[in-house]
Amino acid sequence: MSSPATAPPAPNNLKRIVAASLIGTTIEWYDFFLYGSAAALVFNKLFFPDSDPLVGTLLSFLTYAVGFAARPLGALVFGHYGDRLGRKKLLVLSLLLMGGATFAIGLLPTHASIGAAAPVLLTVLRLVQGFALGGEWGGAVLLVSEHGDAERRGFWASWPQTGAPAGQLLATGVLSLLTAVLSDAAFGSWGWRIPFLLSGVLVIVGLWIRLSVDESPVFQQARERAEARKEDDERLPPGAASRTHYNAGGDGGAHGGEHLLLRDHRVHPGLRDRLGRRLQADRAQRRAHRLGGALRRDPGLGRALRPDRPPPRSFMGARHRAVDVPVLPPWPTPPPGLSSP
Questions:
Q1: pTM, full prediction
Q2: pLDDT score of 106
Q3: Which end of the chain has fewer CB atoms at under 10 Å, N or C?
Q4: How many secondary structure helices (H) and strands (E) does the chain include?
């Protein structure tokens, strides 16, 4: 079933889609890079206080690195379900996961309150961040590219990529502002939580913008084609598929068994000769069938081969149907002098 060609989107609608993807990507990269800045400033003291300062800093950056390790897994999962459920739904989910994990980090108790459970929870939330970003980045680019026109699709798809530097600049700017207006004690006590809690507001704004975007027209057409194929399959009578594919599967299995028998040195030579002649006949039959199909598709081919006779269209089809039986013959009677097993 062919679908109609996708109409080029209106310029205003396309710009709104690009802006929504750019804002959502910027918010997620803000959350992702905010963790790195906080890991360098305060996480080593708040979550790894029992370690040497250098070791605490390394452990803090190690939790930062696990987010990058989770990104490929997020891309795999979100890409799979994005093709099934839609790009828009999965992008909304990735934004919620990222914003929820970042907001939870802002509320997370430190090592002084809950002990070793604090860095464990911090690492889990960081994994959620990386998982969500793996689905966000590729999904945002895909949504814009599928909305864009063929002439400038690459240009429009490049805009979500600017969300990474924009998010890093935003995270660095917020932390710089807080360190400038707060004392070191206030920032280490409660000020570091403000940028993480601010993510909740940014996510609400991003969701409001992202929910106003339409689903990708490419995905909508693919879903319509899949539903049409499903309806066609449901209209088939029971057993039609098995009857249609019986010959291909049965012939393949029979030929495979015969080839195994021909290669088996324990089979009687007379039987191997008989099987070999039968395989040659089957090959000739398949070649005749392919020739008949070519003659049916191109009647001029038959006149070129035999100008005095019309192309045997119906004969080839009737011949194929008449001899379309299982290939493997009955097991022959052993020759004299050869005992049965």
A1: 0.62
A2: 92
A3: C
A4: 16, 0
